[in-house]
Design brief:
CATH architecture: 3-Layer(aba) Sandwich
Number of strands: 8
Radius of gyration: 16 Å
Number of domains: 1
Strand order of the largest sheet: 1-2-3-4-5-6-8-7
Number of helices: 6
Structural class: alpha+beta
Order of helices and strands: EEHHHEEEHEHEEH
Largest sheet: 8 strands, mixed
Shape: globular
Length: 186
């Protein structure tokens, strides 16, 4: 299986590996209270984003040995970084993967999340040959749940008080899609 060639293009977006130059844009996303409300960490300082960026910018492999693909989503024509989209292997034996995404609030509700996440599902099913891709969110995060449903993922579980995050027990929603379901939508 060949590694992906970057950038990956959608109608309105460019997806490419993260670089050191993305520090300010990533801090503008992950430094916000509203972005981190349903995540299991607090808003990140600029230095914390720099350290994190050093780790995620290497997540570009789409080979059997590569475990993760994490890409910056930029608006075509402006090169403004608006989100962070990922797919990673959770089980080699069972051909399982997981989808993740964070979109700057100024760009939510415009279809960008669906556009980028659809590409990540395509990569997971067609390049990595996953049998099943799951995604999780805090049950209070209605926009994330709605995006997973728009992607054609099915809700498999509502786990009651399954995680202790930021001092409280929270419910978690689990969505998934099988390769056969992906193929039937193409």
């Amino acid at each position: 299986m060949a590694a992906a060639r970057f950038p990956l293009l959608t109608e309105r977006l460019v997806l490419r590996p993260f670089t050191d130059d993305d520090l300010d844009a990533m801090h503008a996303i992950y430094g916000r209270d509203d972005v981190n409300r349903y995540l299991d960490w607090e808003p990140r300082s600029r230095e914390a984003v720099r350290e994190w960026l050093d780790r995620i910018k290497t997540m570009t492999a789409l080979t059997p040995g590569g475990e993760a693909l994490r890409l910056a989503a930029l608006l075509r024509g402006t090169d403004r970084l608006i989100g962070d989209f990922s797919i990673w292997r959770t089980s080699r034996e069972h051909q399982q993967g997981e989808l993740g995404f964070v979109l700057h609030p100024d760009f939510q509700g415009k279809g960008y999340g669906r556009e980028a996440a659809s590409l990540m599902l395509r990569m997971g099913f067609e390049r990595l040959r996953f049998h099943r891709i799951a995604a999780h969110c805090d049950a209070r995060n209605a926009p994330s749940a709605a995006l997973m449903e728009r992607l054609g993922m099915r809700r498999e579980a509502h786990l009651r008080e399954s995680q202790f995050i930021k001092g409280e027990w929270v419910d978690e929603l689990v969505y998934a899609m099988l390769v056969s379901e992906w193929q039937s939508k193409q």
